[in-house]
Fold:
Amino acid sequence: MGTIGFYIFYGINWIITLLPLRILYVFSDFLFIMLYYIISYRKKVVTKNLRNAFPEKSPHELNLISRKFYRHLADLIIETLKLTHLSNKELKRRMIYKNSELTESLYNSGRNVIAIHSHYNNWEWLGACFPLYTRYAIVSAYKPVKNKLFDKFLNNLRSRNNGGLSPMKHIVRKIIDNQNNKIRTLYGFIADQTPAKSQIRYYTTFLNQETPVFLGVEKIAEKYDMSVVFANVQKIRRGYYEITMELLFESTTGLPEYEVTEKHVKRLEDLIREKPEYWIWTHRRWKYKKQA
Structure:
């Protein structure tokens, strides 16, 4: 997307997302038809990923998951764009935090926290609304997109409630600054991204396949003795979600190597197996194979 194309997109998005979500979901229905039936967006990737992840399922079952996934993907795109005009009151009504007492207890104990999430359900709404639910300063680690204008557009949506953002390569510097300034902080990490081939240090079994994973969450948590929680976001119905923070580790000092990584990877796998249509299957998650 060039500069002119971006500004055309920005203008159209600004106008259209003034509409209420119930009307925007009509656009989502058309988008689903486009993605699934007409342009077949990354359909071969989705089919391959699902077949390898669930070899026990029949072709009919896999096709049903695929269709549900594309319908969710269309909703996700519309919901993310709607953040342009979605009020905080509406956002909190649609994304409820069920057990705020957990993070409140960790805050009162003086703990800094790593919150692990993934490309499961609506992670963009999670990042936008969570600062409204906690006294923690929020910093979300992210991977910048190549288009700088679109990257700025997304970051403006993500940081709308004073949620901090940090490129992944600068996150340690941000942690040190916050610790020096005694700012209790919750750091959000998307933990299902694929490391660059040169950065792969560890493989685990995830969804029936040998899978390279980042060790950054584990190393950072242990180095600074942070608590680790898992952000479980469940879709209740169209446009409505619930957040439950699950405590994985209150302290991470002295844990066996890879224990933190294995635990959060396994928790994500359990979620995906329960409702696979809500994970992003269009990613080429298994493009790097384990070397002998």
Residues 1-85 form one domain. Strands lie at 95-97, 113-117, 137-142, 164-167, 185-190, 203-206, 209-212, 227-237, 240-249. The chain has two domains: 1-85, 95-280.
